[in-house]
Design a protein that fits this description.
Blueprint lengths: L6 H12 L6 H17 L3 H13 L9 H19 L1
Helix pairs in contact: 3-4
């Protein structure tokens, strides 16, 4: 994948590589994207906690693999939809 960053962002990426923390520009961009997505999801912490409490109170003994992730993903989608509507 090729991405155009513009001169200012290219300089920032190059500076990060020069620090020695990153081996190349791809690592810088991947790390920046990870941080961006983690910040986006930070609002979902309480939602995750609520989902965990609901799962604990559930009459079911165990969740099959992936079922809890689907439950959380659905709750996050609903929450984000409500935020966009507001």
């Amino acid at each position: 994948m090729n991405v155009s960053l513009g001169k200012q962002l290219e300089k920032v990426v190059e500076q990060q590589v020069k620090t020695g923390i990153y081996q190349n520009s791809s690592e810088v961009v991947r790390d920046a994207l990870r941080h961006m997505f983690l910040e986006d999801d930070s609002d979902d912490t309480e939602l995750l906690a609520q989902s965990l409490r609901a799962a604990r109170r559930s009459p079911r003994k165990r969740y099959v693999r992936g079922e809890f992730q689907k439950l959380v993903a659905k709750a996050v989608t609903v929450k984000r939809g409500q935020a966009k509507a507001a």
